[in-house]
Write a structure and sequence with these properties.
This protein is α/β, with parallel strands linked by helices and 271 residues long. It is 38% helix and 19% strand. It is built from 9 helices and 11 strands. It has helices at residues 38-44, 70-80, 93-104, 129-143, 147-160, 171-182, 222-234, 250-253, 255-268, and strands at 3-6, 9-16, 23-27, 49-53, 62-63, 67-68, 86-91, 109-115, 193-194, 212-217, 239-243. Strands 1, 2, 3, 4, 5, 7, 8, 10 and 11 form a 9-stranded mixed β-sheet that branches. A two-stranded parallel ribbon has the order 6-9. It is globular. It starts with a strand and ends with a helix. The relative contact order is 0.16.
């Protein structure tokens, strides 16, 4: 299995498609790992070289408890594969990293697709009463070091959304949501320390000069919906798309719609 060693970590990665084609770098959500892209990789790889990797604390990547730059990890994968520039597609935490990379290393980024993510430095947003209750449950599980309960409740909150439950979905999707985060359970005790971008992206979005597509699922938590609106208006010329039948992981919940939107946008911008 392919791994690349960098700064106290062995990063697991996979590639699909022809390396001669333009590269897409896919970065997953914190409640998942690179397997979250399985439903869409086949379609994306028809026209692009698709690269994806497990971030620290997730999937098949191994890490020591060291300070690290998430942006540097992503660039290390691109360097290892001799990729000079890529379109970055990032979900949630991966989307935040993608935005930061566009500001820190603009010469390496051809375009951005951001899914349910915030720019680094985004101020706190008030949650609904239901969301507050659900996050309090996560906090209690963390304080009790009840990693299995924490893992499962995180998956449910983000995968289904705060106002839906697993009973609203077909069993295959429910199993996928839980499996995507369950693969991260062995990393529960790891504490690598990400070094934040300084200054953060929040007040710098007008400096992004590449094509940007900002997306969100309508069933995501209220805070993420606010972040989506901010990104869509603060990034010059950004395109925006909402997935009405998805929560935090539209590439998993609505893969055909997601792939159609992204491939059409890539074609429109000649990326």
């Amino acid at each position: 299995m392919p791994h690349h060693d960098v700064n106290g970590a062995s990063l697991y990665f996979e590639t699909d498609g022809d390396p001669a084609n333009p590269t897409l770098l896919l970065m997953h959500a914190g409640v998942a790992q690179l397997r979250m892209w399985d439903p869409v990789v086949g379609q994306l790889a028809e026209t692009h070289h698709v690269v994806r990797f497990d971030g620290r604390g997730c999937g098949q990547t191994e890490t020591q408890n060291v300070e690290f730059s998430p942006r540097a990890d992503a660039l290390a994968i691109l360097d290892h594969l001799d990729v000079l520039k890529a379109v970055l597609i990032g979900c949630s935490r991966g989307g935040t990293v993608a935005i930061d990379m566009a500001l820190e290393s603009p010469g390496r980024v051809r375009g951005l697709v951001v899914i349910g993510a915030a720019p680094s430095g985004f101020p706190d947003v008030g949650l609904t009463a239901r969301e507050d209750e659900m996050f309090d449950e996560l906090d209690r599980a963390f304080a009790d070091r009840d990693w299995e309960t924490l893992n499962r409740r995180e998956a449910a909150l983000w995968g289904f959304g705060p106002l839906r439950t697993e009973h609203d979905f077909n069993p295959d999707f429910v199993e996928t949501v839980y499996e995507l985060n369950w693969a991260n359970l062995p990393h529960s005790e790891e504490r690598p320390a990400p070094v934040p971008l300084e200054p953060p992206a929040y007040d710098r979005l007008s400096d992004i000069a590449v094509p940007v597509l900002v997306t969100v699922g309508d069933h995501d938590i209220s805070e993420v919906l606010v972040q989506f609106e901010y990104l869509a208006t603060a990034i010059p010329g950004a395109d925006a798309c909402r997935f009405p039948d998805a929560a935090h992981l539209p590439s998993v919940e609505q893969p055909d719609d997601f792939a159609r939107v992204v491939t059409a946008w890539l074609t429109e911008h000649e990326l």
